[in-house]
Design brief:
Bound molecules: zinc ion
Distance between the termini: 88 Å
Protein name: RNHCP domain-containing protein
Largest sheet: 4 strands, antiparallel
Helix content: 10-25%
Strand order of the largest sheet: 3-4-5-6
InterPro entries: RNHCP (IPR024439)
Strand content: 15-25%
Number of strands: 6
Organism: Nocardiopsis suaedae
Shape: elongated
Structural class: alpha+beta
Number of domains: 1
Radius of gyration: 19 Å
Length: 125
């Protein structure tokens, strides 16, 4: 009888991919247009692991971060604003080239869908 060899592939955990804390997608760390992928391209959620600089891994919060808004930098680059569901911290993250475009647009236009004043007021300006 031959002894069966276990040929386990060691997964380099955290080295080249991470699992999304929101939708459980396995996300490769390399992303088009950014050096530090810090959010899921599918649901745009992030995880609170960085404290000051992207990639510093200095925070011990670890809660999910919800994409709440989009802002635009001077060069036209879209930046996602994430709010931590655990500690309410706000973090700006560059959007990546393969981010879900539908969710990006939905996040960017959310305030327009719920204006804080009657739209008729615009006609009187
Ligand atoms: Zn996700
Ligand atoms: Zn947090």
């Amino acid at each position: 009888m031959s002894r069966r060899r276990e040929n386990r592939h060691r997964s380099r955990q955290g080295a080249d991919s991470f699992r999304c804390a929101n939708c459980s997608l396995d996300v490769p760390l390399s992303a088009p247009g950014t050096r530090h992928r810090n959010h899921c391209p599918n649901c745009l959620f992030s995880k609170h692991v960085d404290e000051r600089v992207p990639g510093d891994r200095a925070s011990d919060c670890g809660a999910r971060m919800e994409p709440i808004a989009v802002t635009v930098r001077g060069d036209g680059e879209w930046v996602l604003i994430h709010r931590c569901t655990g500690c309410d911290a706000l973090v700006a993250n560059r959007s990546a080239g393969d981010d879900n475009p539908l969710l990006l647009m939905r996040t960017a236009t959310r305030p327009l869908a719920t204006p804080p004043f009657p739209l008729e007021r615009l006609a009187r300006l």
